[in-house]
Protein 1
Amino acid sequence: MIRNEGPLSFYKGVLPPLMAETPKRATKFFTFEQYKSLLTRNRDATAMTYIIAGTGSGITEGIMITPFERVKISLQSLRSHIRD
């Protein structure tokens, strides 16, 4: 691979997954901080605060991202059937 296409060939195709992962991570971090600030309100955060904020951010991310993942998987499946 390095001889034919050069060292950058190892990174070929990395941009689309990276672009898809960025909004997922941004959603998770943003919602975590929002939940944490709602739960603490002038108090110190406890372990339970982090557990609840993490659970809430994971659920929120799942609700927001799942429809897009479903479309992506459907398109990948369709392309797979077309090739066969």
Protein 2
Amino acid sequence: MQMLDQFFGYIYKFVDKIKEKLLTPLAMPIFVKKFSEDRMSDLLVSLLKKELILFSLEQAKLHGLRISKEVACFDYWDVDKHEWASFESQYVLAPKEGGDEELLILVPKSIVSKRFLVNPSRYIAVIFQHLQSLERYQRTNGTPKTKKELRESEIVANYQKDKDKSYILDKTLASPEYYEAYYDDSIRFSDNKSLTDEELIECLTK
């Protein structure tokens, strides 16, 4: 929670136009320290827990999967009340070695992505592209510094911990238009196609 509090405190410093683009799932893995793509996936499952449990039960009835006899309590985000809430429900059972069974949550194939399309490295690459067009980041012969050179001078030389995200936080606060351009491009060129069955099987069997 402390990480998220720091993030929201950071967003408070921006104008409303940028705030809207920072208060999205796209931004959190980029800006929140020690918050990776995997933690973003876990958070989304927690927020959508009720919908996913109900979806799982529907699919279990369609495909003959085992459903628990007892009910369990699950937490989820209530979008109407803007707060965490709880509900009780049966749940789908997944077979496990040794004969034990555990909770199985199914996710609609249409919302599964092979990889997270935004990450700190990609955003830093976009920032460096902007810097390479500025005179102060040119070599003496007039050619732009390479991204490797920029990383050494901009990040490695100036930060000790959480280097990439610390740089991103400072640079975005100084030049919010960099993130605005990155966000718009990410939305414009995002691939919204569902994974094929073969791609899903490949992901699940790695």
